[in-house]
Write a structure and sequence with these properties.
The structure holds 2 protein chains of 2 kinds. Chain A is an all-beta fold. Chain A contains no helices and 11 strands. In chain A, the strands form 2 sheets. In chain A, strands 2, 4, 5, 9, 10 and 11 form a 6-stranded mixed beta sheet that branches. In chain A, strands 1-3-8-7-6 form a 5-stranded antiparallel beta sheet, with no helix packed on it. The N and C termini of chain A lie far apart (41 Å). Chain B is mainly beta. In chain B, the strands form 2 sheets. In chain B, strands 2, 4, 5, 6, 9, 10 and 11 form a 7-stranded mixed beta sheet that branches. The relative contact order of chain B is 0.33. The chains are: A mainly beta, B mainly beta. At the A-B interface, β5, β9 and β10 of A face β5 and β10 of B.
């Protein structure tokens, strides 16, 4: 069965301290990998789609990369407003997204 | 830009009661879906629709009904609420599944006592 696993579960950083979040997946015939950001009490908000190994996408302090088995979300010099839960997901079959359990990121000022 | 609108934001039900969670989108998206989010379980697909009049089951459909009479609306009905249905429910839409990202509403937090 297709699976998506995110690590770590929670990550606490100081403002300006760079780090990476991991999303590993087992799915046959990857048709894209999605990253979302979710703030407390809100729905997930789309960040990136990656389609093939080696692809990279950037947005402000975030950069997402993709290999054949995992994706990384690198956060460079984070600010407190980057605190959120970050979710990754892959399509399964025709109409379903399989989500990881998320990484809860806290940036302390 | 309203996007995907869900009502109510919060609801408390007693076991056995029924209710409908409302979802509306104004982006003319064909694809709509309902997910539930539980601690430690991630987001799980309940039901989805690929267009007006067409619905199908997702991963955890038991205890829920859906219908899609218009492109804009996709209500989720709880037939006889159970404590196991305590969760946060998210509605999502997109115009072409797999090629474009899902747009989510802000959720309905449901507690069943």
């Amino acid at each position: 069965e297709d699976q998506v696993t995110q690590s770590p579960e929670a990550l606490r950083l100081q403002e300006g301290e760079s780090s990476s979040l991991n999303c590993s997946y087992t799915v046959s015939g990857l048709r894209g990998l999605f990253w979302y950001r979710q703030d407390p009490g809100k729905g997930p908000e789309f960040l990136f789609t990656l389609y093939s190994a080696g692809e990279e996408k950037e947005k402000e302090r975030l950069k997402a990369t993709l290999t054949k088995k995992e994706s990384f979300l690198h956060i460079t010099a984070p600010k407190p407003e980057d605190s959120a839960t970050y979710l990754c997901a892959v399509p399964q079959g025709a109409q379903k997204l399989v989500f990881g359990q998320g990484t809860r990121l806290t940036i302390n000022p | 830009n309203a996007g995907v609108t869900q009502t109510p934001k919060f609801q408390v039900l007693k076991t056995g009661q029924s209710m409908t969670l409302q979802c509306a989108q104004d982006m003319n998206h064909e694809y709509m879906s309902w997910y539930r989010q539980d601690p430690g379980m991630g987001l799980r697909l309940i039901h989805y629709s690929v267009g007006a009049g067409i619905t199908d089951q997702g991963e955890v459909p038991n205890g829920y009904n859906v219908s899609r009479s218009t492109t804009e609306d996709f209500p989720l009905r709880l037939l006889s609420a159970a404590p196991s249905q305590t969760s946060v429910y998210f509605c999502a839409s997109n115009d072409r599944f797999g090629d474009s990202p899902l747009h989510f509403g802000n959720g309905t937090r449901l507690t069943v006592t």
